[in-house]
Structures are given as structure tokens and as C-alpha cells.
């Protein structure tokens, strides 16, 4: 295992690499507003981050990542375009696996640039890939935007699309919803009774949720029951899309085939194609680069376009060594009315040293 | 050295535990005044009775400060991550039955399943600007359960007692609590979600996997488990 000073030295070297690209060094505080993070991630963040509190400021969290504070800082007073780098500890609860570190050093690079998203994606990926050169790692890429475009293009009600969009990050719930909207999953008996108008209640209404809200949802459920099912072919196309797992050139040709039947994804597929060209221009061997359409869906992150990760080929149990992606929507949510396309990635110097030591 | 046995220090849980051991030839009793938490064991040598708060027994077992302890499945699973590695169930005592459930107002005729709860939570957040609040003291169990079920847009609020009243008091929209008969829920105009069963709990005798034992302790433990089986 590398010592702390070895890890910090490597972190500094990686940071210097990014500074040489024009990145500004930033140092966000360790204690972050719990409210912001809870608002973004919901209750799940509590299972992942350490919460602390005092009587004056209330709940605060030990930063589980740097991206959120860096975006906040940029949206507040950043110049454009901007490149940032940082390094330091992040803290993650590990209640299921005592072998995983709950505190480790991350080094990151974030690009806020409106000009050429494909080039910015390629820049972040290629810089990180370069820094990792020589390690027995396998890179995987994906693009959440393609799935989002496919959902947007479904022939169904806006409400159903919204429900699916909300659960893109929860594959099981997403699947269950899709099956139901396609009329392929049976309705629970209570829903059947409700739709038949057989459910009444004599108990008084208590709490904040009003009778009008209950009524509105009953109406929405009735409307939904009356709406035609999503055609089976469209559900199968979504599944076919999620199953795409090939090297870049093959994945792209597969995506183009799918776009014939799902014209809504054409724009997103073009962005994948533009990225491939930009990656090639940066010297990335895209002919052997993996593309997985479902990659990045289970990580509870905020990515909504390009995603990537580097995993150990020799030690499958090791956490992801480096990862990142595009998070345009996050800048919108934290920007209070403003937004800017953004992409970034992080590396774990401690794990890099561990892998080097094992070689 | 002796085998240390942790038992809830008051109430029905203590009485029922004493009865359960008594039926197996081991007399447990409190000694000294009513207010003193000291106990005595008859029917077997080298066993010490420790009267503890039921909520602290999981922690004491995990730390190996007691060898055996009686407490609910709910408390063990809530308080101990990786509990299977720290404690081992010896016997289920067939009392103290309680289900950890999710309940919502009966008047929510549109909500019967977790799927409904999730959809109602999304609409609630859009309408009110904050997440649908679920009052509970079982934070870990409830969070893990809801995450596995893919429920989003809720927030847990801490409630250490009178949880059934939180909805009427408008400090929460739903609750996750233990119930044995459901009567208190009904009296507070709440209903259980049909797929909202998080855990079925009962009083259980646990053995610590971490408490140190000498040879003599092993003999005592063997004798004790034989009597209790």
C-alpha cells in the first residue's frame, strides 16, 4: 500500500499536469452544505456521505466529491471558458464493504466551455487516459444522452416520459415502469379497484398532502389507464439500445441502425460520432475503445451525456480508478437561471500507486 | 470469567425474557431496589445478568462486552452494519413480535404500493417544493429498503416516539415504524402499504461473534445453550 505522502506527491504531479493545460487550482472546503447535496441527490446521499452537525449551521456533509462545490463556485463568479483542477480527500461511507476506503485522495479536472462539447469531452478523456498510461486498465465509455433522447422520442404521454426520465438512474424501476406503460405488466389489484371507482374512504384526511392532490393523482391514473400502451416495438428498441456494448466503431454502426427506427436519437448519436472523431484527433485508439449504452446508470451521479470510467483489468474487485462525464444539467440546477456545458473527471492516485506497486 | 447475558432492563420485554429463561430452568431476577439495575442468575453457574437498554444491546454484543443478549431483530439490523458478521441468532423467543412497515394516511386512496408512494412523492415535491417526509427512527433500514425499491423524492425525518402522530401534526407525510396489531395506526387514520413490509421482527437471543471466551466460558456456554435449546 502506498503511504499518504507518496499519494499526495502523485496527486500534486497529476494536478501539475492539468495546470499545464491552463487549469486554475481550486480548493473547495471539506464541509459542504447538507441542504444542497440532499436537494440534488435525495436521501440516498446519506447512505454515501458522512453527515455532521452543529447547533449554529445545522447539518453539513464531509465532501463526497468535488464536482458540486466546483460547479457552485464557477456558477457564482467563474470566467468563461474555464478549466479547473483540484486534489484532496473525499469521504464516502462504506457500510457494506469494510475493505473499501472511506477516505481517499481524488484529483480532478473540470472544463466549462460552450464552444465545442465533443472537443471538451475528448480533452478530458485523453488527458486522463494519458496520465494513466502503462497501468493495466480498461476504459469504458457511454452516453446517457442517447438513452434520454430515446425516452423523449417514445410515442406516449408527456407524463409517462417524465416518469421514465426521473428513473433513468434506477434501472430496475425504469424497467418496471416501461413494462407497465407497455401494458406488459399486470396492474396491482388496488389500482384496478381504484380505476373502477371502487375505492372510497371515510377516514378524515390528515397531513399536508391535500385532497386536491389526491384527486389530481386519481385523475392522472385514470388518464394514464385510458392512454394507449407504448408499442412493444418501441420498448424492444429501448432494450436493444441498452444492450449495445461494443467497441466504438461497431457501437456507432449499431446506434445508427437503431436511429433508423428511433429517429429521436439521431442527434445524440451524431454527438457520439463527433466525439469519436475528436477522441481520434487526440490520439485515442477508438477502434478498441468500449462503448456501453447503459454505462453510468447506476452510479447515482449527475451525468447527462458522455460518461467514462477506467477499471483494473487484473483486479476486478478494485474500485474505478478514474471516472467522469458531462453534466450540463447540473450547472443548470446549481446555476440559478444560468447554465453552461461542462465536463470533467477524477482520478484516484492512491489506487494508481497500488496498481503500479503490484506490477 | 463468566458468560455475560444482556437483557432489556424494564417493561414487558424484561418480564417475558425472564419467563422464557424460567421455563428452561434458569431463573433471572432483578436484585436490590426497584430502581437498581442489578440482577442475579440461578440454575447455572458462571453466568452474569446485565440489565441494559434494549437499544444498547446490539452495540454491546458487537463490541464483545456481552456474550449473549436479548433484543429485537429490528434493532440489530438497524444499528449494526454487516450484522451477520458480528452476531449470530441463537433462538427466536416467540414474543415481542413487531413489523417495521410504511404507513400513509387512509385518505390517500391513490396510494397503496411503493410504486404509488414514489409517484405521489414526485408530485408532492413538484407541488410543495420539498420532499415528501417520512418519519422514522429506523433510518438505515428504511433508506436501504426504499433505495432497493427505487423510491425517490422522499426525506427521512427523525422521530423517536409518538411517530403515528407526526402526520396529523404535519411534521411528516408518511411514517415508517414498528407495529404489532396495527391498532394505533388505524386510530391515527393511517394504513399500511400493501408491499411496505420492511422487516418482521421479534425478540431474539443473540450470541456475540466477537466476545472473548476462555475454556471455562466455552463449557458454560455449551451448558447454557443445551438448557435453552
From TrEMBL, chain A:
GO cellular component: cytoplasm
Sequence positions that bind L-histidine: 65-67, 92, 106, 110, 297, 302-303
InterPro entries: aa-tRNA-synth_II, aa-tRNA-synth_II/BPL/LPL, HisRS-like_core, HisRS/HisZ
PROSITE patterns registered for this protein in UniProt: AA_TRNA_LIGASE_II
Keyword Zinc included in the entry's annotation: no
Keywords, comma-separated and alphabetical: Glycosyltransferase, Transferase
Any Gene Ontology biological process: histidyl-tRNA aminoacylation
Any Pfam family: tRNA-synt_His
Aminoacyl-transfer RNA synthetases class-II family profile domain residues: 12-349
Single annotated GO MF: histidine-tRNA ligase activity
Record note on quaternary structure: Homodimer.
PANTHER family referenced in this protein's UniProt entry, alphabetically: HISTIDINE--TRNA LIGASE, MITOCHONDRIAL-RELATED, HISTIDYL-TRNA SYNTHETASE
Name the UniProt record assigns to this protein: Histidine--tRNA ligase
Native source species: Sulfitobacter brevis
UniProtKB/TrEMBL annotation, chain B:
Pathway: Amino-acid biosynthesis; L-histidine biosynthesis; L-histidine from 5-phospho-alpha-D-ribose 1-diphosphate: step 1/9
Transmembrane feature ranges: none
ATP phosphoribosyltransferase catalytic domain ranges (all copies): 54-224
Chemical reaction(s) catalysed: 1-(5-phospho-beta-D-ribosyl)-ATP + diphosphate = 5-phospho-alpha-D-ribose 1-diphosphate + ATP
Molecular functions per Gene Ontology: ATP phosphoribosyltransferase activity
GO CC terms, sorted: cytoplasm
Family matches, as Gene3D superfamilies: Periplasmic binding protein-like II
EC number(s) from the headed UniProt entry: 2.4.2.17
GO biological process: L-histidine biosynthetic process
Pfam families assigned to the protein according to its UniProt record, in alphabetical order: HisG
Keyword Transcription regulation on entry: no
UniProt keyword Amino-acid biosynthesis, yes or no: yes
Keywords assigned by UniProt, alphabetized: Amino-acid biosynthesis, Glycosyltransferase, Histidine biosynthesis, Transferase
Function comment: Catalyzes the condensation of ATP and 5-phosphoribose 1-diphosphate to form N'-(5'-phosphoribosyl)-ATP (PR-ATP). Has a crucial role in the pathway because the rate of histidine biosynthesis seems to be controlled primarily by regulation of HisG enzymatic activity.
Protein name stated in the entry: ATP phosphoribosyltransferase
